[in-house]
Design brief:
The complex is a heterodimer. Chain A is α/β, with parallel strands linked by helices. Chain A is about 30% helix and about 25% strand. The chains are: A alpha/beta, B alpha/beta. The complex binds flavin-adenine dinucleotide (FAD) and iron/sulfur cluster (SF4). Iron/sulfur cluster (SF4) binds near residues 28, 41, 83 and 90 of chain B.
């Protein structure tokens, strides 16, 4: 799941300042799950913005609030197209993808990001999320016992641990587990320690061609993949 | 103005609006077993909130004579109460007694207009007859009640002893019937129904009860000194003082036996024993009454039955035999079997028999009789084999209970109405689903155990000298605390639509009772038979996909807040502070009531049904409408669950963060939890008020400086 955090209210207020009528648009999928932009947060932000406006005495914004099931699919966005036509800007509480999907769908509309999209991760417990995947496009989790060194090692090294490991913790912070020690221990448990002996050539992440696209369509000529 | 749940782009908005005005609550087990289907959960909750008059209104809506039931109802609701599975059931009858007494039921005035010309005759003035008369009058029919005895009330008058039902209570209800214009003819035994029709009555309701004592069928039963219990009680209740001697034995194990024994004791009999042929577990009498009889010194001999009575020297020699329990019989109870050679003798001055009663039907009634001399009726229409003749109560069921009789009377009134209006009987369909299923052990484990608070009773010494009422009424605090134990079965949370649910698992992770779970398809389910309606998940659900099943619960905080803020904005007092306070017992029992500062001081209180239901949004709304400070006050130890304070603090923390980002002082919002004394919380609140006053002053000065 994509995890994000709502932006500071001040930043949001600065962004919306030029626009009178603003729709706060939530997303019913990842942003709901990570507490950043579901219907409840839309409503809370709405109240907070109104309160801020009332207290500061300046600004005469009027707000609308909606939440769509998924901002990253144009069909869902279509459902609110007529509502959007009444406003001056969209404050999206969707992730960066949602913001862009909206911008694409409404070419003449300003779309503002209300959250900072942070990472792909999972819930550790209710209200706490941890990063787990960097979407590097070349998954090595087979070799690392299901623990991703790219996201969980501070340095993202592929042949760890480095000399900074101490009592299973990382030198960057003693509260943080050393990912490579975790990998070692789990490989040991799975009796696959030989995987530690392999050498993985460094990867140049800058060389990954962007933007990427994946298609599951079979090409009509029939001479697919092979 | 508030962040109302907005309409939405997924097409379920209309659906949701519809849903939000719909009562999805399930009928709780207490109500389902009540012959009158009383809204027990609702009035118990109103008592818990200290809204006694409203509780009384709910009670009166479902029961024509609530103060009678408050004394003598056999409360099947308490046996069915699900709190039984946790610790002890809610003391429902005692709470009803509290509500009728503190709510002023005596003052309620009943009126009725005559809108129909068809006269109805009711034969018998027991609870069935009284209820039928009450409802027929309400429907506008002229009604006459014929009663063989000199006084009205049936077994309420001539059966149940005064120490369990004071006669003032009964008299008030009888007077109310007269007030409504019911014609009452006492000392009038009806012997022929044809006569009633000749007199112009268009319909007859027979409720003659079951007054004929069943004989034991043993040798010497007709000896002087063997008295049937029902007759004995009737004589005492009608003012006679039969002399019984020093030692009395009673035969039987039901309420009549216990009542006869305790009545004998109150007439001055020195030694009273009860012979019962089964063991205590099978005894049909109410356990608390058995307990009270034992406390009063009555000796109960279990597994004992008389087999012979001999009169010798003006005394009775009763030969008894010991019994043991064999195979279960048709009633499901284990059949007593005599133990050979275990006979023993007892010398008594009188033997009271109370092993059951049957109706005594005048032969000229010409109605079809079934098992145990009871009248046969159609269970839906209550009609007998004779046109225009209906029957109900003990006369149909055999000896039963007051509430069953009242239920029969109410049903008869509407069936007679159908008959007289030439309609097919309107069979009311229950639209609400009945809650079935026990609480799971996991749920029970998480419920705070709070012992049942019994109403006070007179000590055995204080009560056996005369016929004073034994059970007393709760005081306010005890009643409120007892009613707060109710689990509010069947009014919990539900997911508005699975489509809206993001399956984020928040509810599953935070529920204090571990109720939500994932079904096999990966959807969240909140089982209605486990949820206890705390409302925590509703405030925490990021998709706003959960609501409470009762529409009132859903709207309550928003509506109250709106109302309060309107008054606050109109009031001249500035600055004002809004407090969300637990409504139970009017701002929590005792401790929180100290928060009540009157609106003059600029404190406006939004009563909430547990602070766990207050959302972060509600707090912001109060600020937006002009509050300078906002607080939440909950009940700490008295709360039904332990983690309410945690969630309140989470939400306060969230609002504080937002206030800071807006440039307001986070101290403006605070949570209070009542401790042991009201002094502490009052002091804390005073400090808070002062603080807010200070902040207000500074900000006004700053504003003036600016301009
Ligand atoms: C000692 C005792 C204690 C009880 N305690 C409880 C209790 O604690 N809780 C509880 O729920 N139930 C209790 N009951 C049962 C309860 O009282 C009865 O179930 C209930 O009263 C039945 O109501 P009814 O209207 O059908 O008949 P009844 O109350 O029996 O009334 C019938 C009336 O019809 C009159 N009548 C009979 N024949 C004629 C006629 N031909 N013409 C005119 N009038 C006639 C009778 O005089 C009587 O007044 C008790 C019963 C007894 C005997
Ligand atoms: S706990 Fe309350 S709602 Fe549930 S059965 Fe008992 S009285 Fe009724």
């Amino acid at each position: 799941m994509i995890v994000a955090e709502q932006k500071h209210l001040e930043e949001i207020r600065r962004m919306i300042a030029p626009y009178d009528k603003v729709v706060i648009l939530g997303c019913g999928t990842c942003m709901t799950v990570c507490d950043a932009g579901g219907e409840r947060e839309v409503s809370f932000l709405h109240s907070a913005l109104r309160l801020a406006q009332a207290k500061s005495g300046d600004g005469t914004h009027s707000f609308l609030e909606y939440t769509v099931k998924r901002q990253c699919d144009p069909e869902f966005i279509d459902l609110i197209a007529d509502k959007v036509s009444e406003v001056d800007a969209i404050l999206s509480l969707g992730c960066g993808i949602g913001v862009q999907a909206l911008a694409e769908r409404f070419p003449d509309m300003t779309v503002l990001p209300g959250v900072n999209t942070s990472f792909m991760g999972m819930a550790k417990e209710s209200g706490v999320w941890d990063e787990r995947c960097a979407a590097c496009g070349d998954c090595r989790l087979e070799a690392t016992a299901g623990i991703c060194p790219i996201t969980r090692c501070t340095k993202g090294i592929l042949n760890g641990p480095c000399a900074g490991t101490k009592n299973g913790k990382c030198e960057a912070s003693k509260d943080m587990d050393c990912a490579w020690i975790l990998i070692y221990k789990r490989l040991e448990r799975l009796q696959q320690l030989e995987k530690m002996r392999r050498y993985y050539p460094p990867r140049n992440f800058r060389a990954i061609p962007r933007p990427k696209r994946i298609t599951s369509k079979i090409s009509s000529t029939g001479e697919e993949n092979g | 103005m508030y962040s109302s749940t907005t309409d939405n782009a997924w097409g379920y908005q209309t659906d949701k609006v519809k849903k939000s005005s719909f009562d999805h609550s399930l009928m709780p087990p207490c109500q389902a077993v009540c012959p009158l289907r009383m809204e027990i959960r609702e009035y118990v909750d109103l008592v818990a909130q200290g809204r006694i008059m409203e509780a009384l209104r709910v009670i009166r809506d479902g029961n024509p004579f609530p103060s009678i039931c408050a004394y003598v109802c056999t409360h099947p609701c308490e046996e069915a109460c699900r709190r039984n599975q946790v610790d002890k059931p809610i003391a429902i009858r005692a709470l009803k007694r509290f509500a009728v007494e503190f709510g002023g039921d005596r003052m309620v005035y009943a009126e009725a207009d005559t809108t129909h010309s068809e006269k109805v005759a009711i034969v018998g003035s027991g609870p069935a007859g009284m209820a039928c008369a009450y409802y027929l009058r309400k429907l506008g029919y002229p009604v006459t009640v014929f009663e063989a005895h000199s006084e009205v009330g049936g077994m309420l008058r001539v059966g149940i002893p005064q120490y369990r039902l004071p006669r003032e209570v009964l008299n008030t209800e009888v007077q109310r019937l007269a007030q409504m214009g019911v014609e009452i003819r006492t000392n009038t035994r009806v012997v022929s129904l044809d006569l009633l029709f000749d007199m112009g009555y268009k319909a007859v309701f027979i409720t003659i009860g079951a007054h004929q004592s069943i004989r034991m069928g043993i040798e010497g039963e007709d000896s002087p000194g063997v008295i049937d219990g029902a007759t004995f009680l009737r004589e005492v209740n009608l003012g006679l003082k039969p002399s019984l001697g020093e030692r009395v034995a009673v035969v039987g194990g039901g309420n009549v036996a216990i009542d006869a024994a305790r009545t004998a004791l109150r007439l001055g009999v020195r030694k009273v024993s009860i012979f019962y042929r089964r063991s205590r577990a099978e005894m049909p009498a109410d356990p608390s009454e058995i307990e009270q009889a034992l406390e009063e010194g009555i000796n109960i001999l279990f597994l004992v039955a008389p087999i012979r009575v001999k009169r010798r020297n003006a005394r009775l020699s009763v030969t008894c035999i010991k019994m043991e329990l064999g195979e279960p019989d048709a009633s499901g109870r284990r059949q007593p079997v005599p133990i050979k050679g275990s006979e023993f003798n007892r010398q008594v001055d009188a033997l009271l028999t109370a092993i059951g009663q049957a109706p005594q039907m005048p032969s000229d009634f010409k109605v079809r009789i079934g098992r145990g001399s009871t009248i046969q009726v159609d269970p839906v229409t209550l009609t007998t084999n004779r046109v225009g003749v209906f029957a109900g109560g003990d006369a149909v069921t055999g000896p039963a209970t007051v509430t069953q009789a009242l239920g029969a009377g109410r049903l008869a009134a509407s069936r007679i109405d159908d008959y007289l209006r030439h309609r097919y009987p309107r069979v009311e369909k229950e639209t609400r689903e009945v809650l079935v299923g026990d609480l799971l052990p996991e749920t029970i484990e998480m419920i705070r155990k709070i012992g049942r608070l019994e109403p006070p009773i007179l000590s055995p010494e204080a009560r056996t000298g005369d016929f004073k009422a034994v059970e007393l009424v709760y005081d306010w605090t005890t009643a409120v605390n007892e009613s707060r134990r109710c689990l509010r079965c069947g009014m919990g949370a539900e997911i508005t639509s699975q489509d809206k649910c993001a399956t984020c698992l928040t509810c599953l992770r935070i529920c204090p009772y571990n109720v939500p779970h994932l079904d096999a398809s990966g959807a969240i389910q909140i089982p209605s038979d486990q949820c206890l309606a705390c409302g925590i998940c509703i405030a925490e659900c990021p998709a706003k996909a959960i609501i409470l099943r009762k529409p009132y619960d859903r709207r309550q905080i928003t509506e109250e807040l709106h109302h309060i803020l309107k008054s606050a904005a109109e009031s001249k007092f500035k600055p004002f502070i809004v407090g969300f306070c637990c409504q139970y017992g009017l701002f929590g029992t005792g401790t929180l009531s100290g928060l009540w500062r009157e609106s003059v001081a600029g404190i406006w209180i939004v009563p909430v049904l547990c602070v766990a239901r207050v959302e972060a949004d509600h707090l912001l709304s109060a600020f937006e409408m002009g509050a300078e400070g906002v607080f939440i006050a909950g009940c700490g130890e008295q709360c039904a669950r332990e983690n309410t304070a945690y969630w309140v603090n989470q939400r306060v923390g969230k609002v504080r963060k937002a206030l800071m980002q807006i440039g307001l002082q986070p101290e403006r919002v605070r949570a209070f939890t009542s401790g042991a004394t009201d002094v502490e919380i009052s002091k804390e609140l005073d400090t808070f008020i002062e603080q807010i006053g200070g902040l207000y002053l500074t900000s006004t000065i700053m504003q003036e400086v600016k301009s």
